[in-house]
Amino acid sequence: MQSEQVIHQMTPVEDWKCHAKAMSMYFVEPEELSTQPRYNTALSTHDRVAELAESLAAEVIVARYFGLPYSIDDSCFKRAADVGAGLEVRWTRYDSGQLIVYPHDRDDDIAILVTGRSGKGFVIAGWMPVKVARRSRYKHGTQESWWVPQDRLAPIETLGSSVYANRIS
How far apart are CA 142 and CA 44, in angstroms? Predict the structure, then answer.
């Protein structure tokens, strides 16, 4: 069962805040950003900043969906969940993109996939526990990661009533 395709928008001010934060992250803590595996090494500096800004926007969208307090200024660089008590937000610009989980992700977290772009809007595609996403059937053939198709994700509206609901607050 797929999630209903609800399009979530950011305001222009929120977009610029995400972009400014992404730029500052490269200036203030570039060593933190370099610890994450980067498979798309062909991105220019500007494209990397834009990609990070879109990822931050996806976190805002998920926090807003669940009514959770969130500030883009509190980025944890994978030391803690992106949102709530255990929500790891993944973003892709591709409408049919997949949820990607990495070895450094925490087993107890819930991975949430957000698709879309600033200006066009974002869709929360669904969720899956990180430990479930690490099944061998999702293992990428050439990367140390797991890729989960959207049709395997649980609808976002089911997370609050699941056994994983405590990962939200």
Answer: 23
Alpha helices, DSSP H, located in 12-116: 12-28, 30-33, 45-66
Local structure of 148: helix, strand or coil: strand
Q: How many residues does the chain have?
A: 169
pLDDT above 50 (res 35): no
Tens-digit pLDDT profile for residues 116-128: 999 899 999 999 9
100 beta partners: 147
Query: For the chain, what is the mean pLDDT?
Result: 88
How far apart, in whole angstroms, are the C-alpha atoms of residue 95 and residue 39? Answer: 20
Is residue 52 within 8 A of residue 22, CB to CB? The reply is yes
State how far the Cα of 50 lies from the Cα of 111, in Å rounded to an integer: 22
146 pairs with which residues across the strands?
101, 139
Phi, psi of 5 (to 5 degrees): -80, 80
Q: Which amino acid is at 81?
A: A
* pLDDT 10s digits, 50-90: 898 999 999 999 999 999 998 888 765 566 788 999 999 99
What's the confidence (pLDDT) of residue 38?
Answer: 54
The residue ranges of every structural domain in the chain are 12-167
Cross-strand bridge partners of residue 154: 127
State how far Cα 46 lies from the chain centre: 20
